[in-house]
Design goal:
By secondary structure, the chain is an alpha+beta fold. The protein has one domain (about 5-235): CNF1/YfiH-like putative cysteine hydrolases (4-Layer Sandwich), CATH 3.60.140.10. It has 5 helices and 13 strands. Strand 6 (about 100-105) and strand 7 (about 110-115) form a beta hairpin.
Length: about 240
């Protein structure tokens, strides 16, 4: 995404404003952190990216396949797990602490999307459904799109139960020492490819939220007191 000069993109980390355990530099109001501190964190992060904190769309994520089209900035979008807009200056924020943030850009029509895709969203194919909304609403075509799958938990650290064998294609599952591991990044990458986006237009972060304990939040690693990161994308205002 860095090669597109008309975009603003960024993802927060655990590090910022000298925040300490357990929440660190946390963006979520729903994990037990002090709301005033969270608001300070958000303002600092958005401002660092050159974004207006009052023009950031934040959804209530419920691990669904609901896609919301944003026509005006609202800090509380409602329940959904993906947002799409063609409005310049409106940032779309995805909260994550292991789940994959998928950012999509229609270069031709100037449309952006931010997707929150954990195992449930992946199973429900929310990334594909977001692309369908972009096509239906804005005429977006895959040959004109670029995508980025941000830092999230890697397969080697994402152990799941045996029931996942009946839920996901075997190519996304690894069996090792009697345990089963899921590759969420690969599943979302394949959805982007299936939609027709060129492989050369897709970038996948190799950072693992679970492994990068000094940098990234991880619910799987830290439990209920894990903070949350924001991945944000916006079309620059002229």
């Amino acid at each position: 995404m860095d090669s597109f000069h008309d975009l603003i993109y960024g993802m927060s980390t655990k590090i910022g404003l000298g925040r300490e355990a357990p929440f660190y530099f946390n963006m979520s109001l729903s994990v037990g952190d002090n709301p005033d501190i969270v608001k300070e964190n958000r303002i600092a992060f958005f401002s660092k990216l050159g974004l207006n904190p009052g023009k950031v769309a934040i959804q209530k994520q419920i691990h669904s396949d609901i896609v919301t089209v944003i026509d005006s900035p609202e800090l509380n979008v409602g329940e959904s797990d993906a947002m799409v807009t063609n409005q310049k200056g409106i940032a779309l924020a995805v909260s994550t602490a292991d789940c994959a943030p998928v950012m999509i850009y229609d270069i031709e029509n100037k449309v952006i999307a931010a997707v929150h895709s954990g195992w449930q969203g992946t199973l429900k194919q929310i990334t594909l459904k977001t692309l369908e909304v972009m096509r239906e609403r804005f005429g977006s075509q895959p040959e004109n799109m670029a995508a980025y799958i941000g830092p999230s938990i890697s397969q080697k650290n994402y152990e799941v139960g045996p029931e996942f064998k009946n839920m996901f294609d075997a190519k996304y599952l690894l069996t090792k020492n009697g345990k089963l591991y899921l590759d969420v990044k690969k599943a979302n990458f394949d959805m982007l490819i299936k939609s027709g986006i060129k492989e050369s237009h897709i970038q996948v972060s190799n950072m693992c939220s679970y492994a990068e304990k000094d940098i990234l939040h991880s619910y799987r690693r830290d439990g209920k007191k894990s903070g949350r990161a924001f991945a944000v994308i916006a079309l620059k205002e002229e």
